[in-house]
Fold this protein.
Amino acid sequence: MGLWRVLFFMLALTLVFCVASACENTATTLKPVVPTKLSEKETVDDGKIKIGFSMDTLEEERWLRDRDLFKAAVEDLGAEVKILAANGDDAEQVLQAEKLISEGVDLLVVVPHNAEATAAIVNKAHLAGIRVISYDRLVKNSDIDLYVSFDNEKVGELQAEAITKLVPKGKYVYIGGAETDNNAHLFKKGVFNVLQPLIDKGDITVVYDEWTRNWLPDNAFANMEAALAANNNDIDAVIAANDATAGKVIEALEKQGLAGKIPVAGQDAELLAAQRIVQGTQTMTVYKPIQTLAQEVAELAVRMAKGEYIDTDRKVNNGKIEVPSVLLAPIAVNKENMDETVIRDGFHLREDVYR
Ligand code: GAL
């Protein structure tokens, strides 16, 4: 066999060998493009589903309850949860979410401090193949996978319905929530769904309407003092976006000798608010059974972490997409139904409310 032929034969053989190995490499890279967290997980740790819970704050009584109830619910489902709270700091919340993502959580649950800023967290999680649930507050303008909360517009309607029943005509003050919180906009929309027709009729005038920066009660106190001063204490009703701000509204009224004389609405059924209601300085609050919210999100989070896709009848538009959503029913609470609502549910003990 001539020299040239031998050389040609060897060249062909080398070429075949190279092509074969190149094909093999391409196959490998294709496979892990969007790794399922679970498959990776099984190989690297105890195989337990790991949920990350990125919270805005633990300032209000309710968030402490959300934290504990969610943790217990996730663990009851045989999964584990890592919880971080950012104390109202946007940059810190993004850093904490990055930490949870880098620790390999299978699913991220977020209570956004800032509805817009947290969109970055959703993008980072998705890049890592992790889906995200919006807990109680909606993340705006992002491809959030699921939103679970209460019907927050209904919260505002319940507040305004209770107060307009007592004060169908007069001067109103609205103490809103944090403008960065999408819920605050929904609460306010609900309140004005009820007030607007009465405003249009000239029965009601809203003489003061301000957001409460960062939901900080002291900001609500300052706003209420400003409202009283601007109206020479001539105010007939106050709707405050939650109980923490309502408590400060009542402190400001107290200073003017008006506590218990002017109806005040709140939200969250905090213990102090329940006490104020039975004592008569606060008119009502809106009870949101957080145990139901925490349980619902825990179950959905574990199912999604196992790869299930959750679709819902209800959708909420977050400015970018129609987000599959679960909205639970809020409940109006006053002196008359305190026992058959928050006390019957064990949300508060009777002896604590009627101390
Ligand atoms: C809202 C929440 C309320 C209230 C508030 C302050 O988003 O729905 O329950 O507590 O935040 O943190």
Observations:
- The longest helix spans residues 3-30.
- DSSP finds 13 helices and 13 strands in the chain.
